[in-house]
Please model this.
Amino acid sequence: MKVLFIGDIVGNVGRNAMKQVLPALKSKYHPDIIIANGENAAGGRGITGAIARDFFSWGVHGITMGNHTWDNKDIFEWIDDEPRLIRPANYAPEAPGLGYTIIKAGNKELGLINLQGRVFLPPIDCPFRKADEILDELKSKTKHILVDFHAEATSEKIAMGWYLDGRASVVVGTHTHVQTNDDTILPQGTAYLTDVGMVGSREGVLGMERKAVEYKFLTQMPSRFVADEGEWHFHAILTDLDDATGKAKSISKIRWVQEDLLML
Model:
């Protein structure tokens, strides 16, 4: 089973890139299941129901979130009715929505888990213990499990990869928006990458207008960050999972810039 996971989609530029790139990706790689992180999709902060519906109509099968899950208030109106979108499972039990699900596409199934780190992020429940709890349930239902660990610290992400080696098919990091170069298959068969990267403007700072970010660094004064409108770059990974065991057979990074699309 081939699984395509797309990094944090940021703002209008990221959404436009998704719409342009997905047909080419599907034609080139023939993924069975497509997952995307959408927590920055609406102007860099959160997601809306309309944006989620667009992603599904373009061929995305599941959406993961992160620390900006609740930034667009309309999410409270539909998250409980949309099982294909999940938020970090280690939020409090009272939080609406699901933290994990099983994505079905054709005759393929993928257990999908979203977790959020605690280092340099708000202190929520332990993602490691929550992973244990969810895996105990999901492993009886499917061999194929992908974990999106939305976290700031590389150490916390790497620790999670080792912690889940052999228990999840894929563990990928999101949130920091810069694709790392440590893609690997761990000894017990888990595909791992510290950060998948982002989909959005490559002319800003992590997808945001750079002038506002520079002002913040220079003055330490409040600055309103707005999603940048420059040319895009697109980051994702493709993993091939063994149908019988759920273990990863391969992991490949994908990095396209806007000009690449013109050459296809």
